[in-house]
Design goal:
alpha/beta, 14 helices, 14 strands, 33% helix
């Protein structure tokens, strides 16, 4: 038996007046998702435990079967794992976004989706000028800062994700609490060093901090070998810590121009050797953070046409597929929320229900619900067994 987890990041949403009361997932043309739903099960799962921040770090730990309340220590350590940065016991990792600020307002959390090549030059410049700390370049606007924590209480500083405050006066959301002064000074220094560059990236925004962590491997938990395919360091880091092989696909950008065909092909090839493949698509989430309805619908339709369709057509033998978003990213809020997400599962040994489509409303009609989202994976792997 082969198993596929296909995640459309932030795909779920609220009904919108602009779409006559439909969600983007309802409005999008998704024949492949509907085909899967008609021959499988549809339900809902709470991937973000009550009281935890609705980040992709928390939600994707849940999707892979790891209880975030037990294992989560922060977003940045997961990205550090992907980048091969081993955190010492006295080190704290921070996510470092390249952002655009103008007249005291954070106008773009991604600096116009700055290219990876351009970003590496800017991160190198910061490392040369700010020699007391160390930045590690990642992909596009997503980077890493690692600092030693002596008695400065950096792990308890309160930080805000930059995609939550687009269009707002950023000074109101700078790091707060004991030990935050050093971080604010560092962010101000990055602005002084980048403001005269020609790039839209003119400041570093620090958030998502945490210490290193360890996970039991996916094989130890479920007895399956596996791989992960994503453009995002966070997802690669979770996969790496779970003992999954990280497959890098050329042209995978984490945006709407990503190499969909390459990802689908890589997933099918990986299944020839591995039992389980986790394929992650970031584009719907990026469109949501921009608040762009048409772009989100396009991202969902691309997900259906260029990922779900080719994978479904290329699968052979016995298999199971689980498809879902990791969390909601409502257009109206431009950030993540913690409501339960819709899911569908189909394949060998799974008896279909009577729900013939896949969206938030249809999923709400199902009695299949997981309050503890990390238990969904075990159910998916063992149902009918």
């Amino acid at each position: 038996m082969k198993y596929l987890l296909i995640v459309g990041d932030g795909m779920a949403d609220y009904p919108l007046e602009e779409l006559r009361g439909k969600t983007p997932l309802q409005a999008a043309r998704t024949p492949n998702l509907d085909r899967l739903a008609a021959r499988g099960l549809v339900g809902r799962a709470r991937t973000v435990p009550e009281g935890m921040e609705p980040g992709s770090d928390v939600a994707n730990l849940s999707l892979l079967g790891y209880d975030p309340k037990r294992y989560h220590s922060g977003r940045a350590p997961l990205e550090a794992a992907s980048m091969g940065v081993d955190l010492k016991e006295d080190e704290i990792a921070f996510r470092a976004n390249l952002v655009t600020v103008e007249d005291g307002v954070l106008v773009d959390y991604s600096a116009g989706h700055v290219s990876t090549e351009e970003a590496r030059e800017l991160i190198g410049h910061l490392n040369r000028k700010l020699s007391s700390v160390r930045f590690y370049p990642g992909v596009s606007y997503r980077h890493l800062l690692v600092v030693r924590e002596t008695d400065s209480h950096l792990s308890s500083v309160v930080c805000t994700p930059p995609h939550d405050i687009t269009g707002r006066v950023y000074e109101e959301y700078l790091p707060g609490g004991e030990g935050s002064g050093a971080l604010k000074e560092l962010m101000a220094a990055s602005f002084d060093l980048l403001k005269d560059k020609t790039s839209r990236a003119n400041m570093i925004w620090l958030w998502g901090q945490g210490r290193g962590l360890h996970l039991p491997t996916f094989k130890d938990k479920f007895g399956l070998t596996g791989s992960v395919i994503s453009a995002v360091d966070l997802i690669k880091g979770i996969g790496k810590l779970a003992g999954l092989k990280v497959i890098n696909v050329e042209g995978a950008t984490g945006y709407l121009d990503t190499n969909y065909a390459g990802k689908a092909k890589a997933a099918l090839l990986a299944l020839e050797e591995d039992d389980f493949v986790f394929i992650h698509i970031e584009a719907p989430d990026e469109a949501s953070h921009k608040g762009d309805i048409e772009l989100k619908i396009k991202a969902i339709e691309d997900f259906d046409e260029k990922i779900v369709g080719p994978i479904l057509d290329g699968l052979k033998g016995e298999y199971r597929i689980l498809v879902l978003p990791d969390h909601l990213t409502p257009i109206s809020r431009k950030t993540h929320t913690d409501e339960p997400v819709p899911f569908l599962m189909t394949g060998s040994g799974i008896e279909p229900d009577r729900i013939d489509g896949f969206d938030e409303i249809k999923a709400g009609q199902s009695s299949l619900y997981f309050e503890e989202g990390h238990k969904l994976m075990d159910y998916f792997l063992k149902i009918g067994g």
